[in-house]
């Protein structure tokens, strides 16, 4: 019912008594879902359904609503102040209006999704309006927002357009899940600033349309990062002008990538590229075999570039420079993991050319780990010139090296299984910022090779938090601020083990569980069964 008040005609005393009794019995029978009648002045009508008729002349009952419940969304909102009222639901002809032209994209998007008209910048107020506004609140989390549902209207405001966008995602889920946005005030913000999904498109190509579908899904779930690992031993998957000879037959054109980037930007998602080096460069080395690392016996080391050669650094820098122009966001992944030279028991004896180069660069005590660290620092210098924040896999920080990695490199912590993989506390105590890619919970590795099993949403939801960085161990709370967030990752070790449609289905609930714990690491209010049912409702 959309009306708050119904007037009844005056009746004789006997008739009023019958109606009173009937109304009371009917209300009890129907339950609190329909609310209860109150007097015309708004006082609680639990004891007396009507006001004194001798004082008013004719009774004027008013419908009151039960206190609203918090919205059911994924991720759950952090705070909701309930209120009494009918809430809001979209109706034909109602408007989305904005207070600032910066919110045009957000306004047009939610208007189209809810079947409303986009009216642009308007100062007038109409029934049914959805109004988007910038709050101008200095120092506030730019991803925070307030959503007020009152008097048949919705107001969403935030200090920046990102927060307003997340408010529209909450509204969209409310309407799609239950038809109505509940009365009251939502105040919401994420616990962690980095909420990511990483996709290995190097070993398994995905269509541009499939990636775009994931971008839309990620946006609705309030993720804000999409990592693209597009260079590995099995393929180099994005068009290149500086080195076209390295590009795999099945690849994305730059035009397709730009469309993905534009779509991601409209959903406030940063696309983080990764050209992994000095390992995982097999596709580049297939076209440049002279740069492939060879051991003392002359045997090639698959995927590893010879970091003693100046041409190796120049080739990778060409690619970093080129793609810094394509991916213009603020973050970059340098890789750095699994350099096979450092898996030998005596790297200096196995690769004398690397040992010689290390001693030349760093003195008589220089070793291959020092040379690999120097390589990483040089690549960081190339990317830093483009004003990017850089991350490196944790096993790209070598315990046996005396040369220190650049101080501004963030740690992408994924495993404790690799050689020289130190505990997360080593990096946290050193003051490094860390991102959680815990392979025990967050790695979806196609074909389940080695000891990997497909992660379940339930296990993430019930057992993982951003402070569970390695295995199942939780680091102390005092380091929480250094853990910037985390990322669920899909890797294509056995590329044909699943189709891209099977991958989308397989990661559906793990993605939702991951973002729930990145948005709010506390114990969820819903059980796993309730959470899964909600996800099906919001599908």
Tell me what the structure shows:
The protein has 539 residues and is α/β, with parallel strands linked by helices. The protein contains 16 helices and 22 strands. Strands 10-11-12-15-16-17-18-22 form an 8-stranded parallel barrel, surrounded by 4 helices. A 7-stranded mixed β-sheet has the order 3-9-7-8-6-4-5, with helices on one face. The longest helix has 18 residues. The radius of gyration is 29 Å and the shape is elongated. The two termini are 27 Å apart.
Shape: elongated
Helix fraction by DSSP (H/I, runs of at least 4): 25-40%
The side-by-side strand order for the widest beta sheet comes to 10-11-12-15-16-17-18-22
Structural class: alpha/beta
Count of β-strands: 22
Uncertain spans: 1-58
Radius of gyration: 29 Å
Percentage of residues in DSSP E strands: 15-25%
User: How far do the termini sit from each other?
Assistant: 27 Å
Number of helices: 16
Q: Tell me the major beta sheet.
A: 8 strands, parallel, barrel
Mean pLDDT: 89
Set down the secondary structure blueprint.
Layout: H1 13-30, E1 36-38, H2 53-56, E2 62-64, E3 79-82, E4 95-98, H3 104-114, E5 117-121, E6 130-134, E7 145-150, E8 153-158, H4 161-178, E9 184-188, E10 194-200, H5 208-220, E11 225-231, H6 254-266, E12 270-277, H7 282-287, E13 292-294, E14 300-305, H8 310-326, E15 331-335, H9 347-350, H10 352-362, H11 368-384, E16 389-393, E17 409-413, H12 424-429, E18 434-436, E19 443-445, H13 457-463, E20 468-470, E21 473-474, E22 483-491, H14 500-506, H15 508-519, H16 528-537
Parallel strand pairs: 4-5, 4-6, 6-8, 10-11, 10-22, 11-12, 12-15, 15-16, 16-17, 17-18, 18-22, 19-22
Antiparallel strand pairs: 1-2, 3-9, 7-8, 7-9, 13-14, 20-21
Helix pairs in contact: 3-4, 5-6, 8-11, 13-15
